[in-house]
Amino acid sequence: MDYRISDAYAGPRSEDYLPASAATAVKVVIVGGFGVGKTTLVGSVSEIRPLTTEETMTQAGVGVDDLAGVEEKTETTVAMDFGRISINERLVLYLFGTPGQQRFWFLWNGLFEGALGAVVLVDTRRLEVSYEVVGHLEERSVPFVVAINTFPGAPSYPMRDLRSAMDLPDEVPMVECDARDRGSCRDTLMALMRYLHSLTTAPPERQ
Amino acid sequence: MSEAGQCWEPGSPERLFALSEDGGPARYKGPLDLVTLIVTRSVPDSGLQPEQAAVLRMCDYPLSVAEISAYLSLPVSALLVLLNDLVAQEHVEARPPVPAAALPDIQLLEAVMHGLQNL
């Protein structure tokens, strides 16, 4: 922690900079419910400590928060954690962990535009959260793989059962992932890249 | 479809405009993305706002919009207003991300896979 007191902003540490040659970036979005392990996954593979960017959401205070006569708009700050992997001297991969609710996705304009694809991180104890996520990604034509975060003590189901419970198309890859384990998270990202590779090289069979 | 969820309003426009140079719509030279890389091209001068000067000090080496937002604790939407001014005045260079495409480029994917294998 060597930020200068005279400086109002704590900038990056010297080791957190990219090389001057870094020319372009790509992004992958990690989607999942609260507490499913998105930030853990990002932290496991990121070369920088996960950072947090925030956006403010203004909503009429109806329904959710009972403000008892206060008809003002409420502001909610929504945070998104992200990390970074330098692919080579010129190319950088960013990983963004975002909540599953679609209303958050509009906060970060263009989060999914240009994203290579997404990893849907699933906790088998709260499978219902992922239904919505999968639907939204399909709507937006964002290619994704499903990663089952293997929490200790979480019930283990056959992949086939999970696939049918989530109503996932056969071609969408499913992998197990321990979000705390670097190798496991790397393999999950590799599964996404291989899937994208297969989509790119194989002509679409349907539609 | 994407319009369907826009029942909320974007946050705090008054604060964003307060931070922008002229209060009007930012001079737009192509949209900046969360992963657009920003690199400083000039030394901060006294006419800049503190946040803008902080960006110039921070971006001697490339940093993404998302990283700058995190380090400055500024919402991305507010930061974009500042950055659009800095780009327009050529204080910073913006290196755009790989352009959006229906399907990514094979060579790009292979480069990413190669990079991940080295993790």
Automatic annotation (TrEMBL), chain A:
Record key words, sorted: ATP-binding, GTP-binding, Hydrolase, Nucleotide-binding
Record GO terms (molecular function): ATP binding
From which domain of life does this come?
A: Bacteria
Q: Which Pfam families match?
A: ATP_bind_1
Q: Signal sequence: where?
A: none
PANTHER family (UniProt xref): ATP/GTP-BINDING PROTEIN-RELATED, GLIDING MOTILITY PROTEIN MGLA
Protein family per UniProt:
Belongs to the GPN-loop GTPase family.
Q: Identify this protein by name.
A: ATP-binding protein
TrEMBL record, chain B:
By its UniProt entry, which InterPro entries does this protein fall under? Answer: DUF742
Q: Tell me which Pfam families the record gives.
A: DUF742
From the Swiss-Prot or TrEMBL record, give the protein name: DUF742 domain-containing protein
